[in-house]
Amino acid sequence: MNVDLLKIIAVGSGGFIGAVFRYLISIFAQSQFPSSKFPYGTVAANLIGCLVIGFLAGLFELKSWANPEFRLFIFVGILGGFTTFSTFSHETFLLWENGKFLMSLLNIGVQVIFGFVFVWVGFQIVRLFS
């Protein structure tokens, strides 16, 4: 196994930044709906992450940005630390387990459908201005 220390540092430092921003966004979004059990914080982090990854993927593809360490820093590190499928899945499970079936299905629909749409929108923004 060939280990590239620069790539590990890029992913690790990006992950730290992404995780901190995710925590801050989650707290802010959830604080806007203090009495709700719906996971607004995770939804906000995941949808913002989808928009950003779509936008950046468009830049990287259409502008041919090729630095592999920078890509790892952004995509795997920052965005990997910022968005989270495991938290989404756990919160959906908890909603379902607590009998909030409609809310759990709403959470799945919002994050999957809007996540896809946000990635597409981010990419189209770059395409529009290229």
TrEMBL record:
Describe the family membership recorded for this protein in Swiss-Prot or TrEMBL.
Belongs to the fluoride channel Fluc/FEX (TC 1.A.43) family.
Q: Could you say how this protein's activity is regulated?
A: Na(+) is not transported, but it plays an essential structural role and its presence is essential for fluoride channel function.
List the InterPro entries: FluC (IPR003691)
Q: What is its main location?
A: membrane
List the PANTHER family hit by this protein, alphabetically: FLUORIDE EXPORT PROTEIN 1-RELATED
Domain of life of the organism encoding this protein: Bacteria
The record describes its membrane topology as: Multi-pass membrane protein
Q: Which species is listed as the source?
A: Gracilimonas halophila
- What Pfam families would the database entry show? CRCB
Q: Which residues cross the membrane?
A: 6-25, 37-60, 72-89, 101-123
- Write down what this protein is called: Fluoride-specific ion channel FluC
Taxonomic lineage is: Bacteria, Pseudomonadati, Balneolota, Balneolia, Balneolales
Q: Which UniProt keywords apply?
A: Cell inner membrane, Cell membrane, Ion channel, Ion transport, Membrane, Metal-binding, Sodium, Transmembrane, Transmembrane helix, Transport
Residues annotated for Na(+) binding in this entry: 80, 83
Question: Where does this protein reside within or beyond the cell?
Answer: Cell membrane
Q: What does this protein do?
A: Fluoride-specific ion channel. Important for reducing fluoride concentration in the cell, thus reducing its toxicity.
Which catalytic reaction applies to this protein? fluoride(in) = fluoride(out)
